[in-house]
Design goal:
Blueprint lengths: L9 E3 L20 H10 L5 E2 L6 H4 L5 H12 L20 H20 L5 E4 L20 H11 L4 E5 L6 H6 L6 E8 L23 E6 L4 H20 L3 E5 L17 H19 L3 E4 L10 H13 L9 H13 L24 H20 L2
Parallel strand pairs: 1-2, 1-3, 3-8, 4-5, 4-7, 5-6, 7-8
Helix pairs in contact: 1-9, 4-5, 7-8, 7-11, 8-9
Bound molecules: zinc ion (ZN) (2 copies).
Length: about 375
């Protein structure tokens, strides 16, 4: 470390990541990378690191070889009947899908390796966060589960890994992949599966085998809003970290929780993202010697929400104050494109002003908290029992 303090967090990026593209009309658009990367750089990011594609051997840490072969086959010949979740409306096949999916995966796992080598305490992989992919199946816009691969890389280096999933959708793939793993705690906060894909993430999903209590879920009612969401995160996350004592943290920051997101209904603002990133940063230093990989995730308002969410992750990792206003040059550069895609006007504030979103009056905040307490107590009891 130099006299100027710790090095900047690593930002994983390569133009080639834009090829993770399911085509026009698909909600997960690579268009988000334009305004997203531009804003992260505008708030100060300089330390960009190019990812290298994960090898088949590395992918096999969580995926079966025959699934990797199937993806490769679609990658060469996209026009085939649906198989193993590929070729569906959610995960259409496209030329080069294996190569770019392996690049996303290698971006997140490579960042873990750099953290383990002491090159940085924190890293951010904005193209990552593909948490729905299963061992032998693509799902929910996800081909290879880069976050699970990142967790596995840290675990195989001997770490106890806390995986935090803040996407509006349950982190089902990652939960399943570490269901019986005593070295990994998965904690997902999401809109209830009663209302939303993938339909899982109930509080009775607690982990099995040698890992009782190490899958933890906080399903929230639709329309919850900032205060209710934050009350749950602030209640559960520090206690879980205290109990589990992670030595590495991997977090997924899907921003489809925002009130402007077209696919879900939690009604958060970017104020929640700032708070959550600050808390994860604190816990990473308190428990894990600073070792923290953050990834992107869902987020379908590519201009008004995704860039601000990413900037706030980077700022938290860089230990910098968030600027009050969005950079004027950034707004100027992206306003026309945002308008063309129905996402104008661009916000003036990086942090949404308080109470711009009223919580749904039908939501009983205490219902979320009651469930969160139940989920937490259950996990602590199960962990203590073994
Ligand atoms: Zn930090
Ligand atoms: Zn999502």
């Amino acid at each position: 470390m130099s006299d100027e303090g710790p090095a900047q967090p690593i930002l994983v990026w390569s133009e080639a990541l834009r090829d993770y593209d399911f085509g026009p009309g698909h909600p997960l658009t690579p268009r988000r990378f334009g305004p997203g990367l531009d804003l992260i750089r505008a708030v100060g990011a300089e330390r960009l690191v190019e990812p290298e594609a994960a090898t088949d051997k590395a992918l096999a840490r969580v995926h079966e070889p025959h699934y990797i072969e199937q993806v490769r086959s679609f990658s060469d010949h996209p026009w085939q009947p649906t198989a193993m979740g590929v070729g569906t409306g959610d995960v259409p096949a496209f030329h080069g899908m294996h190569e770019v999916s392996a690049l996303v995966a290698g971006g997140s796992t490579g960042a873990v390796e750099r953290i383990l080598a002491g090159e940085a305490e924190h890293a951010f992989s904005p193209a990552g966060g593909l948490h729905h992919a299963m061992r032998t199946r693509a799902a929910g816009f996800c081909v290879y589960n880069d976050v699970a691969l990142a967790v596995a890389a840290a675990r195989d280096a001997g770490h106890r890994v806390l995986y935090l999933d803040l996407d509006v959708h349950h982190g089902d793939g990652t939960q399943v992949l570490f269901w019986e793993d005593p070295q990994v705690l998965t904690f997902s906060v999401h809109e209830s599966g009663h209302d939303l894909y993938p339909g899982t993430g109930m509080i009775d999903e607690t982990g099995g085998g040698a890992a009782p209590g190490l899958a933890v879920n906080a399903p929230l009612d639709r329309g919850s809003g900032d205060e209710s969401w934050w009350a749950v995160v602030e209640l559960m996350l520090p206690v879980l970290a205290d109990m589990f004592k992670p030595t590495f943290i991997v977090s997924q920051h899907g921003c489809d929780t925002h009130s402007l997101d077209p696919l879900a209904h939690l009604r958060l603002t970017t104020a929640s993202y700032q708070r959550a990133c600050g808390l994860v940063d604190r816990l990473a230093h308190e428990h894990a010697g600073g070792r923290w990989l953050a990834t992107g995730g869902g987020g379908y308002d590519a201009y008004r929400v995704v860039p601000r969410s990413w900037a706030l992750i980077w700022l938290a990792q860089a230990h910098r104050e968030a600027p009050g206003e969005m950079p004027a040059a950034w707004r100027e550069r992206w306003s026309e494109e945002a308008e063309a895609f129905g996402q104008a006007p661009l916000p003036v504030d990086l942090i949404d002003p308080p109470r711009t979103v009223a919580p749904d009056p039908d939501v009983i905040v205490s219902r979320n908290l009651k469930r969160a307490r139940q989920s937490l107590m259950q996990s602590l009891e199960l962990q203590a029992s073994c």
